[in-house]
Each structure stands twice: as C-alpha cells, then as structure tokens.
Specification:
mainly beta, 4-stranded antiparallel beta sheet, globular
Amino acid sequence: MPACPRLLPALLLSTALLAAPPKGKAPAQAQEPQGPRVDAARLVALKARSIGPAVMGGRVSDIAVAPDNPDTFYIGLATGGVWKTVNAGATFSPIFDKEPLLSIGAVAAAPSDPKVLWVGTGEANDRNTSGWGNGVYRSTDGGATWTHVGLDWSRAIPRIVVSPADPATAYVAVMGDLWNPGGERGLFKTTDGGKTWKAVLKAPDGLDTRVGCGDVALDPADPNTIYAALYARRRTPRSFTLRARRFRGQGCGRHLPEPGWRRHLAEAREGPARPHRPHRAGRLARRPEAGHGGGAERCGRHHRH
C-alpha cells in the first residue's frame, strides 16, 4: 500500500531530530593519537637503508628465454634457485625449491624444444661467499620436475649451451672447486641427455687441478664451431692470491688448440681462427679481478673447436 503523502514530512522531521546532537553539546571530534609528535625537522637525519635481501644474496647468475615465447623466461639465482615467469616478469614462481640445493650457476633452454631445460648448480663467482653445487639437472616439462644427470663433483658451472638441433646434446663449462684443487674441471659434453659425459677440453696435466672452463659458446652461423675459455683461480679465506705469473711459460695466453689438445676434441671441426668476430660467439673470457695480494690466477686459453 503506498505511503500517505501527509506522513512524509513527519518522517523527515523525525530523522533530522535523531541525527541532531543534544542542545548545549558540540559535535564530537576525532581524537588525535597519543604520543610524542615527530616533525619533518627530526626526520632529516634519517636515511633509508636496505633491509634485505642481503647484498651477498642478491645475485642473478643466468637468464634463459623460452625459444618459442619471449614472455616466458627463467632466472637462475646464485643463492635462490630457479624462478620462472610466463608474463614477461610481472610475476615469478620458484620451480627448483624441491631440489637439495639452491645455488645456481647456469640455466639453458633447448632451442629445439622449449620444455627441455638444463640447470648447472653452483655459482662460478670468485667471491668468498660463493655457493657450490652438485652437478647438472634437466627438466623435460618446463621445470615442473627435475632429474639430476651427473657431474656431481663440478661444484661450479658458469655456462651451459644446448645444441640447436638436439635437446639431448649439451656442453657444460665446469669451473670446479673454488677453494680446493681437484674435482671435475673443464668442458664436458653429453649426447644422451646427461646419461653419459665426456671431457672434451681440459688443462694440461699439472694445471688441471686448478684450471676450469669459464665459458663456452656456439657459433650462431655454424653450431659445429665451439668456443671455450679456460680460467684458473683459487680463493682463500682472506684473499684471492694464486697469481697468473705462476702459469707463465706453461702455454697460457690466447691460443687455438694445439695438436696435443685436439686429442680431447674428437669431434673437432678444423678451420682457421676468426679472432675479429667476437660477436659471433658472445662473451667468453672473464676479466681479471682485483684481489688482495695481486688479483686473480688466470690461464687464458681461448679454444676454437
């Protein structure tokens, strides 16, 4: 039944009376917070500072982009595992947290199969807080699950490159232990998805306990041509002191493979050197780093295979 027009003024008057404050009392005001007042002058001396993650933990070792979609890529962190984004970095998800360690040195996506990923554990930085790894992991489902596929004693892996035609063929640059001699060092190759490995390049006897492979790259115009760089290092608790001069006179410098080295490169493709085309192979060598007592030990062989 519709309301009577005569009742409307009465209803409006009643509502106004209920909302009005009692006579003689001012409307209640919001109470100010209790405590000392801090003005802008008192804040001048305060500076913003980072509270995390710590500088020594905020290192990105490698980035791999899915060959079929540039919005999907993978980030390998020196102390934080592998993270994946499918929306060009708007969000990231951890995909390596179920594995036994989280220090990552290299991440690679197979050019011929975007679901095949390779991860080398153990960062290859020369700092005294560097983490270490336990070899290579491989995924065939875009990082949902992982399989440990060997090189258990590599400790540090700075680079992995995958054959553009075969996702089961990969080259792994192994630096080895930063603190101790021995272990696995050099350039390793697999053609069966990591079931077996072959050392295709290493330092000469007597140097192979300290010299590892610091980088590897395929020639984009000819993937049968492979470039690799050997690098020598040793860290102590206080310094980085094993110097390059200890290797002088022992074949260090810029070289192509010598006949004695080619025995390690059974698949080698012989050809002239092309030193003026560095853009064809990408970044290879590490620059010597300053350190206490004279800097880095460096065996600078650059090999073309």
